[in-house]
């Protein structure tokens, strides 16, 4: 998942766009470079053209020789690309010690892409021992200096608590910093962290393709959030056919990994019998588990289970207590439910002032049923 610096496709496109925009002839440029290899930049560019087959045939070996020559003349980008070739065994035998040495040299010169890759070396033990603290420090330095790949890698460390205390606020902060610079990996990680309520606003605001997101989720279903989102896409038929059974399987897998929202959605599917056979006992058990974790929608649903006898005996007192706890913590559905109990004296003494109080609380957060209730009560009381 770590991004050691996937700038190649971007930089290649940048070079090609520049050449096309200025109506330059690729073969002429290549020919001129061949006749004028008199500094590190022209030697590097010859290597670049050979590596990508620009104005000539692709030759990784030629590229290697030219990168080595330019790198010997202290050309930063040549040293960086040479490190990548040694890292991947691309046109040369893999040599992790050389990767580390080149990246260390670049980091000392504060070449940000090299600094990010040195962090990657420390994080993954490439040419050196694993040292997540050093990796964190390098990513942090690169991130503070504006390198979008370092910002992404720093965010990953904060998200998963790798070598540093887990901090989702800082993870989102650095993903956003990176995404604002156009990094697609950060845009996709942000989607997993911002919460389902805001996902589609985020996707629309950043002009992301839903199909692209769905395909990315299929290839990166490696944590509870991404697995949950695959279930969500299948449940509602977003860039795929509606498939409640598949949604159930994804929700169940995500729920087993501890996702609160997946456990909540799973309990709803068991309650409604959508994509799975109805199972009131499981509704109750999942809701109880969520309530114990203080997850407010689950706490409200546990109240509903006690209120209606779903997977347990009817117990209005316990229903009231669950609704009240969730309502006081701001859950709008629980506020509506407790208002109903006060209005009709269900398991509690009838109290219209308390009913109106909680309907208002819920309505202020946008609950349409509470708004209707307030309107009808206003007509009756007046």
Automatic annotation (TrEMBL):
It holds the Pfam family Sel1. Belongs to the sel-1 family. This is HCP-like protein.
């Amino acid at each position: 998942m770590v991004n050691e610096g996937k700038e190649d496709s971007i930089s290649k496109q940048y070079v090609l766009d520049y050449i096309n925009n200025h109506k330059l002839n690729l073969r002429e440029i290549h020919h001129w470079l061949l006749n004028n290899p008199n500094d590190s930049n022209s030697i590097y560019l010859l290597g670049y053209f050979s590596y990508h087959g620009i104005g000539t045939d692709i030759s990784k070996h030629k590229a290697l020789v030219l990168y080595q020559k330019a790198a010997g003349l202290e050309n930063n980008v040549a040293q960086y690309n040479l490190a990548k070739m040694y890292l991947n065994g691309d046109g040369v035998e893999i040599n992790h010690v050389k990767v580390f040495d080149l990246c260390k040299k670049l980091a000392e010169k504060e070449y940000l892409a090299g600094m990010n890759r040195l962090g990657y070396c420390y994080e993954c033990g490439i040419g050196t021992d694993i040292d997540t603290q050093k990796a964190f420090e390098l990513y942090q330095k690169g991130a503070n200096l504006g390198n979008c790949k370092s910002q992404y890698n720093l965010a990953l460390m904060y998200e998963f608590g790798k070598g540093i205390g887990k901090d989702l606020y800082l993870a989102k902060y650095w993903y956003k910093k990176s995404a604002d610079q156009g990094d697609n990996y950060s845009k996709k990680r942000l989607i997993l962290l911002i919460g389902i309520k805001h996902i589609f606003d985020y996707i629309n605001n950043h002009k992301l393709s839903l199909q692209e997101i769905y395909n990315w989720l299929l290839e990166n279903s490696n944590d509870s959030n991404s697995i949950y989102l695959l279930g969500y896409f299948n449940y509602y038929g977003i860039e795929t056919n509606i498939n409640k059974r598949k949604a159930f399987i994804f929700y169940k897998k995500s729920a087993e990994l501890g996702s609160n929202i997946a456990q909540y959605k799973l309990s709803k599917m068991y309650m409604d019998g959508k994509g799975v056979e109805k199972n009131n006992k499981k509704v109750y058990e999942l809701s109880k588990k969520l309530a114990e974790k203080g997850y407010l929608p689950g706490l409200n649903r546990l109240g509903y289970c006690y209120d209606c006898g779903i997977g347990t005996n009817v117990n209005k007192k316990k229903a009231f207590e669950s609704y009240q706890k969730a309502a006081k913590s701001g859950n709008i559905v629980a506020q509506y439910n407790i208002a109903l109990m006060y209005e009709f004296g269900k398991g509690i003494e009838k109290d219209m002032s308390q009913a109106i109080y909680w309907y208002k609380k819920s309505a202020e957060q946008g609950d349409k049923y509470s708004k209707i209730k307030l309107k009808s009560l206003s007509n009756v009381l007046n």
